[in-house]
Design a protein that fits this description.
The structure holds 2 protein chains of 2 kinds.
Chain A: E1 2-11, E2 14-24, E3 29-33, H1 40-47, E4 55-60, E5 63-64, H2 69-75, E6 76-79, H3 91-101, H4 106-120, H5 135-147, E7 153-157, H6 165-179, E8 183-188, H7 191-197, E9 200-205, E10 208-213, H8 215-222, E11 225-233, H9 241-245, E12 250-257, E13 260-268, H10 274-284, E14 287-294, H11 298-306
Parallel strand pairs in A: 3-8, 3-9, 6-7, 7-8
Antiparallel strand pairs in A: 1-2, 1-4, 4-5, 9-10, 11-13, 11-14, 12-13
Helix pairs in contact in A: 4-5
Chain B: H1 3-17, H2 19-37, H3 40-43, H4 49-67, H5 69-77, H6 79-85, H7 90-122, H8 128-155, H9 159-175, H10 185-194, H11 196-204, H12 210-233
Helix pairs in contact in B: 1-7, 2-4, 2-7, 4-8, 4-9, 5-6, 5-8, 7-8, 7-12, 8-9, 8-11, 8-12, 11-12
The chains are: A alpha/beta, B mainly alpha.
Chain lengths: 312, 237
Amino acid sequence: MIELQNLIKDYGSLRAVDTINFKINEGEILGFLGPNGAGKSTTLKMITCYLTPTDGNIQIDNYNVYEHSKEIRNMIGYLPEHNPLYLEMTVYDYLKFVAEVRQISENDFNKTLRDTIKKCGLTEVISRPIKNLSKGYRQRVGIAQAIIHNPKILILDEPTTGLDPNQIAEIRELIKELGKEKTLIISSHILQEVQAVCDRIVIINNGKIVGQGTTEELKMSNQRIAKLNLELIAPETELYTIKEYLPQIDVKTIKVNGENVKLEINYPQDKDYRKDIFNFIKQKDWTILEMQLHTSTLEDIFRNLTSGGKNE
Amino acid sequence: MNNTLIIARKEIRTYLNSPASYVVLFVFLIISGWFFSSPLFLINQASLDTLFSIIPIIFVFFIPAITMSLISREKDSGTIESLTTFPLSDFEIISGKFLASVSLIIIGLIFTLIHLLTISFLGQNVDFGAIFCAYLGVILMGAAYSAIGIFSSTLSNNQIISFIIALLIIFFLFVLQFILFFLPSSLAEFFQFLSTEYHFSNLSRGIIDSRNIIYFGSLIAIFLKLATVIMETRKWK
């Protein structure tokens, strides 16, 4: 449905978005993940026709951003970063204004408004000025203005930034609800958020895509090092002999607590060394208190993929 | 409804909900009222000439004050991003804001009609034709200044800077008429033609000359076009 082809955006000499390619299918919830300053917002601004790409193309159905800006803007509901709103307007006036701009007729307006405020939980604050609302409610107003014309595509740029945990949970519920019927792009620098609501994730760093796929796919493709935590009763001095027995493994840290010893062992993912390690310990006649294998979480992958990037 | 009108209506509502616009209107009416009424019985003529000689001066400050926030504030608060990602063209946004500002000027001018009432009660032979032309003149002048103000407002996201840029451009156009004698006579005619005061003075004497109307119309068209172009440059930055 949405296809980004070799998308490039330069701000002066700074290349903010560097040759990005990806596709979003109809009905999919895509998480667009990256550290601050990675180029997420810039990419979304180009999809929503706020900025024009320096090079490359964005194709949405049969439209492209160069020639069909208006058609594309009609199809998209957009919540920009920082959720800009006309603070002096009341929620009702603002939504009425957006409905007019979105060409919703007077006759449909009442029904549309009722549905939207119900969906977004704005019923109690409808006549209040936006400046008097809490951040959570403001975010709901931002989402309400984005969905009022029932767009096929919904783009939310960091929808939960600055909210408290309860509000975040509420907004996520709302996003999940919206994702059932729309194609959704959510950008975030918070991993759990993307993990919680998205079907597929695109990770971007310094304007380049550094990873994409479902949560599972990302884990699979990036799990190169396995981490094994062990707690033993063993003489500390003899611990390193394990390296002689199994040269492929790497003993990272050792903590001694009385006769208990904790170690972390890393080894390449391609082979499972747990049996060998166990055999070695059995042969030495040590006691195993704990043995735990950590597969890397999405968080590790994210950090791994985006570390070393310059943060602006 | 037409997109330009939707924007204009929203901006007018913003004006009417904002205490600042009442303050500006109030100051406009106090100053113009004072300059009209204090010499009224000295001059002893049933005319609004004193009013129409002070309004162009007040407009130099009044109009930048009402237009300065129109785009600047949207840029500053980021609402420009939601506004321009609605299916509106940049020109519709600019022209809507222009209409709103002209409407506020007309509202201000409507209050000055009370002076017209005063002279038509007190005196005889009120030249309604000339007064109509003069009102047309101040509205055209106000509209041209509004276009300049909106153009300045697109240049910065700081309202004060927008105000000052508009003030400088408008003051330049206004003051040209009064500095002509510093200029060589070959240039004087050209600069006189650029001056808003020159074109307004024709209208305020009751002469509707197409040149004057074309002059104000061109100013409006040029500055609204420039404002639209500046708005569009954001896409390429």
